[in-house]
């Protein structure tokens, strides 16, 4: 069996996982997927990877009621979550969708570092780490769920020579988008990491936005001034450039009075903190139509040799 050149990712040279209507081809493809360490569950009646106009591979998942999501292999980035015909995630208008840069938008991954100024002296990596720069492998995909994995590459070892296996599961259900990020330390020494889902939410306008949650009375690091402050608002509104780290807050809901919608972040495990970011006034980034309410493990976490860390985050949308 010969791979059709059109199934080969021109950027990485790796083969996309295409299924066939013919069972004979399906059997051959199942064998091929399994020979690459994948799962024959990846066989469906439609192509399991699609390409955007610029050649980047993604999968599209749907739930029985038609809720849908798109997940790119580049950075395992979830770029879309639609339910009831409404889009809740935002890809920035200046984002590169051709693989020349990590995707700025959706649920962008920051791992194994959040930022250079996060006090994580054990790490000396680029801002937001390398996971978003890498092509993740598709381990399995069914109609409503994809499992992607990332293992050390020469590129990652050049920055962070640790033995790890990262697994990211994304599932769309009738009532939610569910993500689980699991990191296994497969080495013989402990390692330290930080992690974040740098989540970009679509909003009709910043003036229609408020962010509810357990913010009031909590201390936060205002990265614009470097000061630690105490939040005195019941809900966050944005009227200036904002980059705030709320430690111990992990229940933000993005409320959009223009859309008449609210989307709640349910950080069930691992994600202990929240970062609110908006580059207010930056038209090129499209500041008026998104806010980042990020699920973060801000303080460096030690993952013991042979141990693991897991973050579980769901999104639930509702009318207001
Ligand atoms: O453009 P990126 O890499 O997706 O990052 C978006 C922003 O993420 C924020 O967390 C950083 O504080 C900003 O400096 C950065 O611009």
TrEMBL record:
GO terms under biological process: carbohydrate metabolic process
Alphabetized Pfam families for the sequence: Aldose_epim
GO molecular function annotations of the record: carbohydrate binding; glucose-6-phosphate 1-epimerase activity
Catalytic activity line of the entry: alpha-D-glucose 6-phosphate = beta-D-glucose 6-phosphate
Enzyme type, top EC level: isomerase
Superkingdom in the source lineage: Eukaryota
Family note: Belongs to the glucose-6-phosphate 1-epimerase family.
TM annotation in the entry: none
PANTHER family, per the entry: APOSPORY-ASSOCIATED PROTEIN C-RELATED, GLUCOSE-6-PHOSPHATE 1-EPIMERASE
Enzyme Commission number: 5.1.3.15
Gene Ontology cellular component annotations, sorted alphabetically: cytoplasm
Record flagged with keyword Signal: yes
Protein name: glucose-6-phosphate 1-epimerase
Keywords: Isomerase, Signal
């Amino acid at each position: 069996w010969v791979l059709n050149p059109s199934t080969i990712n021109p950027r990485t040279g790796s083969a996309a996982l295409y299924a066939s209507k013919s069972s004979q081809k399906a059997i051959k493809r199942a064998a091929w997927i399994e020979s690459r360490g994948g799962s024959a569950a990846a066989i469906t009646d439609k192509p399991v990877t699609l390409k955007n106009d610029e050649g980047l591979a993604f999968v599209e998942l749907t739930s029985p009621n038609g809720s849908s999501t798109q997940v790119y292999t580049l950075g395992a980035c979830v770029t879309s979550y639609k339910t009831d015909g409404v889009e809740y995630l935002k890809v920035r208008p200046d984002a590169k969708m051709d693989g020349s840069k990590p995707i700025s938008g959706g649920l962008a991954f920051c791992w194994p570092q959040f930022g250079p100024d996060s006090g994580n002296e054990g790490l000396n990596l680029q801002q937001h780490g390398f996971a978003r720069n890498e092509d993740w492998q598709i381990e399995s995909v069914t109609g409503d769920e994809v499992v992607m994995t990332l293992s050390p590459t020469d590129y990652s070892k050049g920055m962070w020579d640790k033995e790890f296996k990262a697994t990211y599961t994304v599932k769309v259900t009738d009532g939610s988008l569910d993500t689980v990020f699991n990191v296994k330390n497969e080495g013989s020494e402990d390692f330290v990491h930080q992690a974040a889902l740098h989540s970009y939410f679509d909003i009709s306008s910043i003036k229609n936005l408020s962010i509810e949650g357990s913010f009031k009375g909590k201390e936060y690091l205002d990265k614009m001034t470097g000061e630690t402050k105490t939040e005195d608002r019941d809900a966050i509104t944005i009227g200036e450039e904002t980059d705030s780290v709320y430690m111990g807050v992990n229940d933000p809901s993005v409320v959009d009075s223009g859309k008449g919608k609210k989307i709640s972040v349910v950080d069930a495990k691992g994600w202990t903190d929240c970062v609110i970011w908006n580059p207010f006034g930056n038209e090129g980034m499209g500041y008026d139509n998104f806010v980042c309410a990020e699920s973060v493990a801000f303080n460096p976490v030690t993952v013991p040799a042979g141990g693991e860390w897991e973050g579980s985050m769901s999104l639930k949308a509702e009318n207001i």
